[in-house]
Amino acid sequence: MRSYDDHVDIDAWVWWLIGAVGLGIPLVLTAMPEFGMFAVGAVAAAAVAALGGGIVAQVLVFVLVSVALIAVVRPIAARHRRSQSTHATGIDALKGRQAVVLERVDGSGGRIKLAGEVWSARTLDGDQAFEPGRQVDVVDIDGATAVVM
């Protein structure tokens, strides 16, 4: 039986894993990927500690892996986010497209064929009118009505 004065030494690699878990918590709560990169650095440092590396080697591996991940992964993620935002979807994908007038379109209404579907439409300028067969540009979608010019 152990006495009160005895203590249990916890290996360094366990502390690194506890640190990795601790860094993973804000990753999940804040969705900031940098915390995940630091957590991976802590896991790498835990591996160095488990293999018998000293504290200097552990800290160097933690810093190098964390900084390398941030330097490499962040620009790739930023590029990926930018490329995703340039692809319009849904209603935004219809803006700027051309349509064909099926029934006269004026400020009070009409019908067009847009992206293979029949849409209600009205002109941007209430005084303007477009006759059937005419090509028009879709400038906005207002509810279920295309605004054309």
Q: What report would you give on this structure?
A:
The structure is a single chain. This protein has two domains: 12-85, no CATH class; 91-148, Nucleic acid-binding proteins (OB fold (Dihydrolipoamide Acetyltransferase, E2P)). It has four helices and five strands, in the order ααααβββββ. Helix 1 (12-30) packs antiparallel against helix 2 and helix 2 runs antiparallel to helix 3. It is α+β, with helices and mostly antiparallel strands. The longest helix is centred in the middle third of the chain and has 31 residues, at 55-85. The chain has a five-stranded mixed barrel with strand order 1-2-3-5-4. It has helices spanning 12-30, 33-50, 55-85, 91-94; strands spanning 98-106, 109-114, 117-123, 135-142, 145-148.
Blueprint (SSEs and pairs):
Elements: H1 12-30, H2 33-50, H3 55-85, H4 91-94, E1 98-106, E2 109-114, E3 117-123, E4 135-142, E5 145-148
Return the average pLDDT rounded to an integer: 87
Structural class: alpha+beta
Could you name the ranges where pLDDT drops below 50 across 5 or more consecutive residues?
none
Distance between the termini: 88 Å
Strand order of the largest sheet: 1-2-3-5-4
Order of helices and strands: HHHHEEEEE
The shape is rod-shaped
| Biggest pleated sheet | 5 strands, mixed, barrel
Quick one: how many beta strands?
Answer: 5
Instruction: Give the quaternary arrangement of the chains.
Output: single chain
Helical percent range?
40-55%
Per DSSP, what share of the residues sits in E-state strands of 2 or more residues?
15-25%
- Number of discrete domains: 2
Q: What is the overall number of helices? A: 4
